[in-house]
Amino acid sequence: MRKLLASTYKEFLLLTRDIGGIAILFIMPLVLIVTITIIQDSTFKSVSETKIPILLVDNDKGSVSETIIKGLKESNIFEVIKIAIEEDAKNLVFKGKNQLAIVIPENLSSDLEKKINQNVEGILDRFGLDEDEVENQPKEIFTAKEVKLYFDPATQFSFKNSVKNEVDKMISKIETQSIYNAFQKQITDDPSEIVFETENFISFKEILPKNKDENIIPNSVQHNVPAWTLFAIFFIIVPLSINIVKEKSQGTFVRLRTNPVSYLTVLGGKTVIYLIVCLIQFVLMLLIGIYLFPAIGLPTLNVSGKFSLLFLVAIFAGLAAIGLGLLLGTIAKTQEQSAPFGATFVVILAALGGVWVPVFIMPEFMQTLSKISPMNWGLNAFYDVFLRNSSLLEIVPEITLLFLFFIITTLIAIVYNEKKNAV
Amino acid sequence: MIEIKQLSKKYKGTDIFSVSDLDLCISEKDIFGLLGPNGAGKTTLISLLCSLIKPTSGSFVINGLTYKKNKNQLKQLIGIVPQEYALYPTLTAFENLMYFGSMYGLKGNKLKLKIKAALQTLGLSQFSNKKINTFSGGMKRRINLIASILHNPKVLFLDEPTVGVDVQSKNVIINYLKELNEKGTTIIYTSHHLNEAEAFCTKVAIIDHGRIITQGPPKSLISDQKNANNLEDVFLALTGHALRDHA
C-alpha cells in the first residue's frame, strides 16, 4: 500500500511539473466541447433562425411556382433569391458561391392543371358525371415535368437529402391540392362551397420521456456534453501511454524492474492519478455546460438530480480509458508509436461508439462492432442518465462492461510485461 | 557469494552469443571489475545478474538465492546503478530518492536521514531540492548511485558508473564505493577506465566475445603478462589493437 501511495505521489509530481501538459489536458477538452456545441447548436437553430440562401429560377411564373416560393419562404429554412437564367444559377452553385438552386420548368402550372383536369374529367366520365361530356375527344399527351435541383458538389449528403425531401413534400402537396381543386370545379360552380376537407387527416406528435411530470426535452447541449466529454476522457490514453513509454526511454523502468515492486503497483499509481484527471475534466465540462453555455447563448446543461449517477459513469468510463492507455503504453516502444496510434484509435472508438453518427444508422456490421466499443457503453450510460432518466440499476450493465474492459486491458498489460521481462 | 555456471545469452535475431558458457565466482566483499572492449558482453552479464534479461542457458546464484525461487529477496539484496541516469528529470533529487527508497520499503524519517547523509557524503546537499534536469552529468551520476544504495544492498552492480564525469566527481564516486565496500557491500562494476579499475578493484576479469579471457587481482595479471606495466598493457595484449566498432 505504501508503495502504491509513493507511486501515486510520484505521478502527481510528474504531472504537476508539466504545466503545459496540464493546461492541454484540461483546456483543450473544454475548447472542444464549447466549439462542437456551438456548431451543433447552430445546426439546430438553422431550422428557425439562420436561413440558407437558395437560388430560384422561375420559368413557370404560374400558381405552382408561386406556391413553391411561398412554401420555401414559409419553411423558415431558406432565403429565396430569384435568378432569371438557369445557366447563371448553375454556375454560381457549381462554383460554390451558393449551395443550392431550384429551377421550375416552363408551363408547369398550366400543364399540371391541364393534366389533372384531363384525369379528373376522365374519372367523372367513367362514372357518367361529366356535364360537358364530349365523346371520343382525343386526349392531349403531357410530358412529365422536372423541377431541377443544382447542389454545390461540396454539399453534404444529409443536407441534400433534407432539401430534396422538403421540395418533394411541397410538390406532392401542390399536386394533391390541384386534384382537389379540379374535382371542386367539376362538382360545383360555387368556388366558396366546401366540397372537400383538405386538411391533413393524419398528423404526428412526439411523446417525450418525463421526469416528475416534466418533459425531458433534449437539446444540443444534452446531446453534446456526454458525447464529447466521453471523447475527452478517452483521450487520456495519449498522455498516459506517453508517460509509460517515457519511463522506458529514460531508464526509470529499468531501475523499477530491479526494485522489489510489482508492475501492478507501478500501474496502480498511474491509474489513481489519471482517473483523478479524468474526473476533474468531467466536472469542468459539466460546469461549462451549466454556467458558460447559458452565458454564450447556448441551452443550459441540466444535471439536477443526476450528478451522482453521471459521476459514477465518468469513473467507469475513465477506468476503461485508463486500461487502454496502460496497455498501449506497455506495448508501444516509442512515443512515435503510442501517440499517433492512441489519438487515431480514440477517433475510431468514438466513431464506432456513435459519438458522430448514431449507431442505429450504421451498417449492420458496424453496429455489431459498435457493441464492443467501450465508448458506446459509456455513451449509452450517459444518455441513459441524461436523456432517458434511468436509475442506477439500469446503467449497471454498461458500467460493468466498462469495468471489465479496464480489468481485462490492465491484466493483458501486466501479463505482457511479465512475459516480456520474465527471467 | 556469486556463483555463475555455464551462463550464456544470445539475443533474438543474432547468431553470436553475447555471453558464452561463462563460469565465474565472485567472493563476498570483493570489488570486482568486469573489463573488456565494446561489445564484449559486460553490460549483458550485469543485466543477466540483475534479472533484466533472461539467460539462454546456464545459471547463477547470489548468496544462495535464485530469481526463479527468491525474486523479491534477491531484489532486496542487490542494487544496480545503470549506465543511463534512470531518474525522473522533472523531479528534484530528494523526490527521486524518496520515491526509489520507498520502492525498497523504506519510509519516514529513516529514509530522509539516509538520503541526507548520502547527499552530504557525495557533495550534493545544497542541490537536494533542485530538479534533476538542471544537474550536470557528474551530479546525475552521483544521484544515480545514491538511488541504488539507500536500502544497503549486499551486492552492488555498477555499469560504467564514472563514464562522462569530471575527475572530481569520479574521485567522490570511487571513494564512496570504497566506503560502501568497507561496510560489507560486494561491488561488481564495469568500466573502460583501466587505470581506475587497476587502483580500485580487488579482482578483475577481462571479457571478450562473451568469454572470460583472464581473471585475478590486477597486480597478478600485470606480473603474469610479459612486458606489461599496467592493466592497459594486459588488456591490449589479450584483446588486441583492432577496433571493435559494431552496430
From TrEMBL, chain A:
Family indicated by similarity: Belongs to the ABC-2 integral membrane protein family.
Signal peptide: none
Chief localization: membrane
Keywords, in A-Z order: Cell membrane, Membrane, Transmembrane, Transmembrane helix, Transport
Membrane topology: Multi-pass membrane protein
PANTHER family reported for this sequence: MEMBRANE COMPONENT OF ABC TRANSPORTER YHHJ-RELATED (PTHR30294), TRANSPORT PERMEASE PROTEIN (PTHR30294:SF38)
Localisation: Cell membrane
Record-given protein name: ABC transporter permease
Pfam families: ABC2_membrane_3 (PF12698)
Superkingdom, natural source: Bacteria
Chain ranges of the ABC transmembrane type-2 domain: 184-420
InterPro entries, per the entry: ABC-2_transporter_component, ABC2_TM, ABC2_TM_bact-type
Transmembrane segments: 12-39, 225-245, 272-296, 308-329, 341-361, 395-416
From TrEMBL, chain B:
InterPro entries: AAA+_ATPase, ABC_transporter-like_ATP-bd, ABC_transporter-like_CS, P-loop_NTPase
Domain ABC transporter: 2-234
Keywords of the record: ATP-binding, Kinase, Nucleotide-binding, Transferase
Molecular function terms, GO-annotated: ATP binding; kinase activity
Pfam family, one: ABC_tran
Stated name of the protein: ABC transporter ATP-binding protein
